[in-house]
């Protein structure tokens, strides 16, 4: 059970909720804070204090004062009018993360909502009711208005949801779970949608999967080193300590640990003096990639526990402040940065694929074919990897440098952070397929060398991967192999292994 306080949510807890469907509850003291904050809002309304989005219109309409008897309708109208998303829906994992993160943000007791609203978010999360939220339509300020409006519809029993793998009307799913649709009160519609939880949810899922893929890329690169009889001296501790980047040193240490007992690697001068950059510079390149995801991790952790709506109500000082915490710039920058790391993880993997299949660059059978000429082997797998890498280069263009004014120029600078996050996740999926192709080729190469000479760690990785992709004994439809291996890397591989300090742990 994960307990929300609004301020202490961790990546490990998000992973357990989003990927493992662990239940969530509110801390007792959090419930008290939420209720006290709502009492402040109710009193301010009674006192007829003018407050943005509570008794005024929204955006350019902020100067329009709304009568008290219309305040509930104002919030419902907001949700209906702002549910303008288009395109394919976010995955259920992303939607689960959105529900969790929105509940956590509202739990700090600065948003003026009733306790029942926060509990309704958790009702959907714990019951596996996932509102269908279109991916496109957010500017990333004033928060993720369109996506979060679609999320909010589910709380009200409106729109469509996924429930136990079935698409249905939200009201039907709520009925099956005995959940009463929510009726919004003053401030609550705005509190639900004025935040960064769509971009942050996509960002968190991207980070968790990118961390896993980078570890898998290290394992795969180590197997490629075996297949090409790479030179281990380039991973020497003193060499990397002389430069001083911690992530670079960590990658080198893990590679040394993975290959410690391998008989397929060589020393400098045995076969050649030094390897090509895609082999020799694995720590430098992947270490830099780790730097990008570590930066994103730092910013995402802050945002996971941030209050990002507007206005904020501070009960202890009896004040309401309109500001811009909904602006997604910090996450936009973080996701644009992680995109570079994802792109380079795939880029250098594709170069290693080329070294594995090109007969001019190795002494293996041409394109790892069992019958070169009659059968093409892995020739076109390299084409697919090159295509994915090229596509990632276009997606890596920073979304955060763009801005289009909205709401009659009242909202005149926006972050495009949700676009950055969406592209990062798309790039990650592309990169996973590239790593899968490298792994297919690396497995074939070590078979030619003799798997009995592999290190224990890479051999175990090889044996697990072979359960999903058999050896290439003749040409076949390799698309199936790539998909199967990519799915395994996404869903299963990290549950079998993790790498810490160069030691292979079950």
Kindly state the percentage of residues in helix.
40-55%
Give the overall pLDDT as a whole number.
95
Tell me the number of helical segments per DSSP (H or I, 4 or more residues long): 19
Radius of gyration: 26 Å
Which blocks of ≥5 consecutive residues have pLDDT under 50? 495-506
- Strand-residue proportion: 5-15%
The helix-and-strand class reads mainly alpha
**DSSP strand tally:** 11
Modified residues (2,3-didehydroalanine (Ser)): 142
Organism: Virgibacillus phasianinus
Cross-link (5-imidazolinone (Ala-Gly)): 141-143
GO molecular function: histidine ammonia-lyase activity
Which helices and strands occur, and which strands form pairs?
Elements: E1 2-4, H1 11-18, E2 24-26, H2 28-46, H3 71-82, E3 86-89, H4 92-106, H5 115-127, E4 129-131, E5 134-136, H6 145-155, E6 160-163, E7 166-169, H7 170-176, H8 188-193, H9 197-227, H10 237-241, H11 246-258, H12 277-280, H13 282-304, E8 312-314, E9 319-321, H14 329-357, H15 379-395, H16 417-449, H17 456-466, H18 478-491, H19 493-496, E10 498-500, E11 503-505
Parallel strand pairs: 1-2
Antiparallel strand pairs: 3-5, 4-6, 6-7, 8-9, 10-11
Protein name: Histidine ammonia-lyase
Pathway: Amino-acid degradation; L-histidine degradation into L-glutamate; N-formimidoyl-L-glutamate from L-histidine: step 1/3
EC number: 4.3.1.3
């Amino acid at each position: 059970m994960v307990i929300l306080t609004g301020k202490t949510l961790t990546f490990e807890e998000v992973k357990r909720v989003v990927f493992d469907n662990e239940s969530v509850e509110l801390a007792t003291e959090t419930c008290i804070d939420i209720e006290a904050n709502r009492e402040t809002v109710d009193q301010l309304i009674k006192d007829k204090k003018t407050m943005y989005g509570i008794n005024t219109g929204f955006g350019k309409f902020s100067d329009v004062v709304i009568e008290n008897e219309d305040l509930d309708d104002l919030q419902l109208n907001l949700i209906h009018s702002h549910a303008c998303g288009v395109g394919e829906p976010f995955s259920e994992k992303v939607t689960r993360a959105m529900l969790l993160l929105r509940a956590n943000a509202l739990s700090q007791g600065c948003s003026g909502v009733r306790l029942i609203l926060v509990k309704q978010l958790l009702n959907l999360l714990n019951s596996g009711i996932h509102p269908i939220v279109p991916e496109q339509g957010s500017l990333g300020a004033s928060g993720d208005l369109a996506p979060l409006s679609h999320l909010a519809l589910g709380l009200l029993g409106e729109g469509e949801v996924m429930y136990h793998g079935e698409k249905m009307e939200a009201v039907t799913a709520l009925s099956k779970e005995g959940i009463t649709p929510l009726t919004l009160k003053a401030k609550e519609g705005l509190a639900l949608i004025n935040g960064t939880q769509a971009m942050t949810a996509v960002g968190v899922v991207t980070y968790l999967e990118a961390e896993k893929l980078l570890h898998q890329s290290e394992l795969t690169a180590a197997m490629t080193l075996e297949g090409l009889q790479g030179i281990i001296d380039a991973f020497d501790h003193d060499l990397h300590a002389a430069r001083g980047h911690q992530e670079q040193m960590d990658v080198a240490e893990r590679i040394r640990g993975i290959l410690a007992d391998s008989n397929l690697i060589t020393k400098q001068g045995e076969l050649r003096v030094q390897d090509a950059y895609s082999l020799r510079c694995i720590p430098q390149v992947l270490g830099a990639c780790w730097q990008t995801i570590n930066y994103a991790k730092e910013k995402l952790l802050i945002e996971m526990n941030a209050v990002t709506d507007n206005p904020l109500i501070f009960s202890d000082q009896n004040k309401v402040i309109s500001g811009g915490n909904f602006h997604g710039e910090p996450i936009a920058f973080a996701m644009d940065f992680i995109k570079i790391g994802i792109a380079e993880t795939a880029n250098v993997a594709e170069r290693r694929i080329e070294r594995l299949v090109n007969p001019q660059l190795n002494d293996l059978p041409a394109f790892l074919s069992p019958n070169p000429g009659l059968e093409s082997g892995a020739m076109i797998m390299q084409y697919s990897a090159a295509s994915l890498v090229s596509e990632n280069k276009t997606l890596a263009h920073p979304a955060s440098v763009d801005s289009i004014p909205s709401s009659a120029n009242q909202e005149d600078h926006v972050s495009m952070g949700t676009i950055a996050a969406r592209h990062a996740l798309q790039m990650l999926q592309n990169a996973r397929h590239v790593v899968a192709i490298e792994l297919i080729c690396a497995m074939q190469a070590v078979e030619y060398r003799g798997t009995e000479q592999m290190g224990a760690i890479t051999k175990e990785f090889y044996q697990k991967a072979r359960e999903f992709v058999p050896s290439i004994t003749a040409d076949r439809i390799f698309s199936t192999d790539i998909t199967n291996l990519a799915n395994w890397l996404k869903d299963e591989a990290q549950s079998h292994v993790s790498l810490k300090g160069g030691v292979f742990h079950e």
